[in-house]
Specification:
The protein is α/β, with parallel strands linked by helices and about 240 residues long. The chain folds into 2 domains: about 1-100 and about 215-230, Rossmann fold (3-Layer(aba) Sandwich); about 105-210, Rossmann fold. The protein contains 11 helices and 7 strands. It has a 4-stranded parallel beta sheet with strand order 5-4-6-7, sandwiched between helices. β1, α1 and β2 form a beta-alpha-beta unit. α1 (about 10-25) packs across α11 (about 210-225), α5 (about 105-115) runs parallel beside α7 and α8 runs antiparallel to α9. The N and C termini lie far apart (about 40 Å). The model has no long low-confidence stretch (mean pLDDT about 95).
Length: about 240
């Protein structure tokens, strides 16, 4: 199996995703790692702006074209390290003619299997407003707690004004949003945007955090038929 990556959504999240795939693969030599082809195209129109009707620049066409190009180069499965892009999952899968790893579905299954019944979700306005994550979680029997209006504005500031802008994230702001979600009963807080994944590079985010980029990286290794290191079998610390 050969992995094709539709990347650049955003660029640093794509780079971190590739790092995670390498780290998670139980390899003893270069040749043991998955074969990966990456199209890092940051000019793909913003997914959240399109979903919310703030832009008429449709990102689907460019994403499908990249998927087709990756298929022509020999890719047998696709991944995109952007949660909001999963809003277009069916169109991308049909248009490219390749299976696309659905990280939202896999995250919901992982949490269900771990016995989690309530989660907090930190994600873009596009992901939240579209309901794509909530739907999968609720179908798995998991209720969802969302930040209030001020908290959601804080999440968007972390994603767009800080991480995407190449600036250090306000970790006090992150911890405040995280703690409020836990106070509302969230057993696990999901980092539901791959930009939020990069906060792990700044500091320890605490217990009960599940990063969707970890899930995508692990699923990518498995999809390529490679073994996952034992230390990554469990992707989040135990909840209370």
């Amino acid at each position: 199996m050969r992995l094709g990556v539709i990347g650049g959504l955003g660029p640093m999240a794509t780079a971190y995703y590739l790092e995670l795939v390498v780290r998670m693969t139980d390899a003893k030599r270069d040749q043991d790692h998955p074969e990966i082809m990456v199209m890092d195209i940051p000019t793909i129109p913003d997914r959240t702006a399109y979903i919310l009707g703030k832009s008429d620049e449709d990102p689907v066409g460019p994403m499908v074209l990249l998927g087709q190009q990756l298929k022509s180069l020999g890719a047998t499965v696709l991944a995109t390290p952007c949660v909001t892009a999963h809003y277009f999952h069916e169109a991308l899968q049909q248009g490219s003619g390749l299976p696309v790893i659905h990280v939202i579905q896999r995250t919901a299954q992982l949490l269900r299997d771990a016995g989690v019944t309530q989660v907090g979700l930190m994600a873009t306005d596009g992901t939240v407003e579209s309901g794509i994550f909530q739907k999968e979680l609720e179908e798995a029997g998991i209720s969802v707690v969302l930040p209030d209006k001020t908290g959601q504005q804080g999440v968007m500031a972390l994603i767009y004004d800080q991480v995407k802008a190449g600036l250090p994230a306000d970790m006090a702001l992150f911890r405040d949003i995280r703690d409020r979600l836990k106070e509302q009963g969230a057993q696990v807080v999901i980092l539901g945007c791959t930009e939020l994944s990069l906060l792990k590079k700044q500091c320890d985010l605490g217990d009960g955090i599940l990063d969707v980029l970890d899930v995508l990286a692990k699923e990518s290794v498995i999809a390529c038929g490679k073994p996952v290191k034992a230390e990554y079998e469990v992707l989040f610390s135990r909840f209370e």
